[in-house]
Amino acid sequence: MSHPSKHLLAIEGLEPPHIADLLDLAESYALLNRSGKTQRDLLKGRTLINLFFEDSTRTRTSFELAGKRLGADVINMSVSTSSVNKGETLLDTASTLNAMQCDLLVIRHAQSGAPALLSQKVDAAVINAGDGTHEHPTQALLDALTIRRHKGRLEGLIVAICGDIAHSRVARSNIHLLTTMGSRVRIVGPPTLIPADAARLGVEVFTDMKAGLKDADVVMMLRLQRERMSGGLVPSAREFFRFYGLDAEKLALAKPDSIVMHPGPMNRGVEIDSAIADHPTRSVIGEQVEMGVACRMAVLDMLARRLPRNR
Ligand code: CP
């Protein structure tokens, strides 16, 4: 099945076969990457521009690697040294890049909806690399691929997403993807960090972390998104760790073969204990990063199939 849109703006709205196709394709790229082979003819002659208005280590680097491994010309636009600093708007910046015949535009922006707005103004395929508190679709894909590789399926798994749910685009994309694929999703956090629309998301809500972790197959930890908070929604970091930080005692409540995930960047000692983050068998955080490259290769491949042959 082909991707239903020219763009990838969100997980919400994708059907199970669309998600399964992307994960299957990503799995083949994961194997290709491990073999050391490349497929540099697939995006030959295509231009990919990374346009990041917010900081990033993993997402920007992995889109760059993914594009290069498929043969695209990749440009990382540094917003901090661009004409945005002279007052140029997002839409004018996008129109300028569009005039340079860019094929794939990867954008991260603090404003929810910015990639969707851009997609209406440019010819390029637009990929949302994280917009405000809305969505981070490629993160959810790489998380799902990592889970599937360890558990063999998504359906029926109990996934506990813990921490700052209210401000997390990672949580939102994961909730849409995992519920669509039949997982049982729990969101776990203090009442101040549970989103107001939790009831419509099809999840179970827990404010007691020990109850939320009971018998979980997957424990996904999130950092406090202080840059998106207005006012003091949490007590001190030390108190947050006591009630909502993942340590060995709390993890013991999940299934003995449960896996621990974190999208990064991590704040050790705040939402996760270092011993758990670095646990040799339970933590799959490094593998998440590896799957990020494979998933982004799959997304670029899938969207490139819908691009016009000659621009
Ligand atoms: N998970 C994630 O989006 O990480 P970066 O902010 O480093 O891209």
From TrEMBL:
L-aspartate binds at residues 86, 169, 223. Its EC number is 2.1.3.2. SUPFAM superfamilies: Aspartate/ornithine carbamoyltransferase. Pathway: Pyrimidine metabolism; UMP biosynthesis via de novo pathway; (S)-dihydroorotate from bicarbonate: step 2/3. Belongs to the aspartate/ornithine carbamoyltransferase superfamily. ATCase family. The keyword Cytoplasm does not apply. Reversibly catalyzes the transfer of the carbamoyl group from carbamoyl phosphate (CP) to the N(epsilon) atom of ornithine (ORN) to produce L-citrulline. This is Aspartate carbamoyltransferase. Residues 156-302 form the Aspartate/ornithine carbamoyltransferase Asp/Orn-binding domain. HAMAP family: Asp_carb_tr. Residues 6-148 form the Aspartate/ornithine carbamoyltransferase carbamoyl-P binding domain. It comes from Roseomonas nitratireducens. The gene is pyrB.
